[in-house]
Amino acid sequence: MIHDYIHDYIVVGSGPSGAQAAQTLVEDGARVAMLDVGVKDDTYRGMVPDADFTSIREQDADQHRYLLGTAFEGISWGGVKVGAQLTPPRQFMVHGTDRWIPLESGNFRPMESLAYGGLGNGWGLGCFVFSGPELEKAGLDPAQMRTAYEVISRRIGIAAGRDDAAPYSIGGLDCFQEALKMDTNCHALYEAYCVKRGALNQRGFFMGQPPMAILTQDRGERKKVAYKDMDFYSDQDMSAYRPWMTVDDLKKNAAFSYYGNCLVVRFEEQEGHVAVFVHRTDTNGKEVLRCRKLLLASGVLGTARIVLRSFKEGRARLPLICNHYCYVPCLHLRMLGKPVERFRTSMAQLVLFHDEDRTHADVAVASLFSYRSLLLFRLIKEAPLNFSDGRKFMQYLQSSFLIAGIHHPDAESADKFVELREDFSTITHDKLKAHYALSEEEAKRTRERERNFISALRALKCFAIKRVYPGFGSSIHYGGTLPYSRQDKPYTLAPSGRLHGTRNVYVADGSGFRFLPAKGPTFSLMANAHLTAQNALSS
Description:
Number of helices: 15
Helix content: 25-40%
Oligomer: single chain
Largest sheet: 7 strands, mixed
Number of strands: 21
């Protein structure tokens, strides 16, 4: 039982936004409680050896246990679906979501998490700075966000460089370590880009290295990247930033309390405090915690559930935005027959921006990965061959594989929304329902842009095999359910992050973003969470 005590602040969620909001509050001297379900990996922690991918494949007789899973859960059968890319050691991220936070939709398949560290456990680590026009469209203050980006960069550590992509990726960011080393495959592609830079720039394409939340220099207990190519399986060296690292550090501070097994259901503003109603996931009991100010950071969809339950008119339909996405397996002809490089990172090593009108306001992006440690069976499934022939074919082509993940910007429209409906078969007696569809114009623009990306890659002798559409929601980039508004309207946020209709409830995740740039939003989510926490402190 949690004691009936009024905390200064309660932060809901331990993901990227919640962790950074809590750190800002604690650094200011506030007493902070974090409420979280906090699912952890009890199966694979400690199982993955401290070795590089090649050594594991050559020497470890038990490798199948964590590469494929003790119950072979790492092998996804059927069509491509959201979460199919999660390796067995990362699948704890989504444990319990069907039971505790069910979502129903015929055309939107998001990924949510109740894990300790949230979706940040599987974050691709891209730290992109939104441009001035992108921030204004999202409803964020460009000057304040620029300052906040520097704060977050100092906290988590970022590897980046100055190249053609820098105006789109890091903007004027000053605090970062040296860039990651590119493997042979991506380095050859980048050299080809440099030769054809003029023609590609003329078409609005700019290539460079993405800023990544990975250390290239040691920092306290965290070690610089060792290029083991095991990034999808282990965080042993802590070179890649994960939000649980921040929460672990906060637990050492007497002003911070962490409460796990707490599913926040709703809140209620009462005289002098906010009551937060919790369903315990360990005992199925119900509890109430109290705070002077509440910061919701449980993810766009999780926060939508809490807010809708907390107002009497909770049947409202909320807008939804999401980066629509496809991935394109490619063959890089310059790498045919070349040996597979032993030491490299599994994460994106190049990024290709498309800014046709050069305004930084409507930018699409392709993240480029060399492919190995996710194993060939995932590609063989997509090949138009039987498994036996496909395996042999893919083995010979392995060193030349490159995956382009193409993300598109998104804005609100009438055909994208969520709503909460009664459902007495669930623990909370309701279920979030989602609908997401592109207009004809949006779909046309999306396909046109994908063709342009494929054409640009072809000019670099990197040929698309096919386009794969995992479905709407697969980008795991969501926003817009409680958009920022200077007018005091229901289900909107004030620019400070305060939920309109409340005095002391703030939203510190991406729910307020009115526009979602194609660049990965996590860096901006953390910067915005920092600003929201500052606003809560000063109000």
